[in-house]
DNA sequence: CAGTGGTCTAGACCACCGC
DNA sequence: CGGTGGTCTAGACCACTGC
């Protein structure tokens, strides 16, 4: 055989750090992928091939491969094999936090003004984002959040009354709507969209903005099992609020 | 002992699914946390306590605890113990992708115009964001990316020449700067800030925007080990680009 | 059927921490 | 020092896949 096997490439790539073996195996595999020697969708060696080539226990190899799978580098299929995933390395994360906690963590004072808290008949759009039918009663709240008396978020929220029947009876000076909803209906998944918009005149007034000041708009839909719990539009003045995120690579 | 121990609470909470043991252990622990019986910062049983109580191998317990740690439910300290983490459930993720791939995945055509690709002497701000000294030579590129001939991103990038000496010699019609940089200097961490801004006249012209159209601005700093590789300012027209993210709860 | 990954065990040695 | 987590091994049994 003139051709070099995938495993023997790898055994050359193993560093001799004092780092744990599973870490070094992971790093060696990541290097193969990043440097293009193992391409997307290509099959990587089986666990037993790794074991034979590297002289390491199968549990150790298994841990390396399992972690790389959960980190998105590999895809495994029982009875079939392990393959290089696509698309890794170009995505990074951003976190969207609870506004009250975020303000508290900065050591500032959070307060809010409740502008609306009541019931309305769902129009077609409103029904759609909650997964209900047009004309059903739904809950709505409109709250402005302040950081040291400066408005930083306008929270316009629709709530599915079937999931959170007690929604209107809470004191949202004490806990945020999101915290309450988390409590009554553990979230299982969600989706959000971040965009830049110009606020209208009413939004400018409520957020104490000059005209033409751009805002971040986050629209978020939250599910609990098969039901949509809530749909929120969160509007942040661009001058007072930024989303910050950190990400880590191959550790 | 009248008081019920933490472990005996847990052994009652273990379901008798046919699911793998480590999964059932994880779910039982998550339930303790969600239902408030184990509170933030509180110590959870040690691995050997779990082993004795549940009659399961330590490796299995270790896997459950290790995965819960990487999922953010627990914090572990060698020689000390394992503790319930704070704040789970209030954060959600957003992904920031590589622009060219994102366009390709939508089935659209990506192209770009390279407006600048050269060297400049670092001013104080520019030196700071790359972790270099004022007056050093640094690389800069300015590229506008198009989706089906409509501009969607303006990429203004500073690059550390010590990390990527070949940066100026690439053809960025073929691969994006970020892809090239990933290849020469595997990223280890990064930070980005997302905000809403109003573009200036020049930016409006390059992105073919009306005046007063808000934009998303992502500023991203990327590290490789101890060195800053690149600092990028990515400007997206608010009308043509939105960040979308999905998140999942306690699985 | 043989090969794959998925899980589990019962030991082991180590580095680290607090006392 | 004893207790903690961090890692590793050499086996084992199983469910799944493709031929």
From TrEMBL, chains A, B:
InterPro entries, alphabetized: Bact_HTH_transcr_reg, Chorismate_lyase_/UTRA_dom_sf, His_ut_repres, Tscrpt_reg_HTH_GntR, UTRA, WH-like_DNA-bd_sf, WH_DNA-bd_sf
What keywords are annotated for this sequence in UniProt? DNA-binding, Histidine metabolism, Repressor, Transcription, Transcription regulation
Instruction: Give the pathway.
Output: Amino-acid degradation; L-histidine degradation into L-glutamate [regulation]
One of the record's GO molecular function terms: DNA binding
Biological process (GO) annotations? L-histidine metabolic process; negative regulation of DNA-templated transcription
Q: Which residues form the HTH gntR-type domain?
A: 19-87
Q: Which Gene3D superfamilies match?
A: Chorismate lyase-like, Winged helix-like DNA-binding domain superfamily/Winged helix DNA-binding domain
Checking Pfam families in the record gives: GntR (PF00392), UTRA (PF07702)
Q: What does this protein do?
A: Repressor which binds to the hutP region in the histidine utilization (hut) operon. It blocks the expression of all the hut genes in the absence of inducer.
Q: Identify the NCBIfam families for this entry.
A: his_ut_repres (TIGR02018)
Query: By what name is this protein known?
Result: Histidine utilization repressor
- Organism listed in the record: Izhakiella australiensis
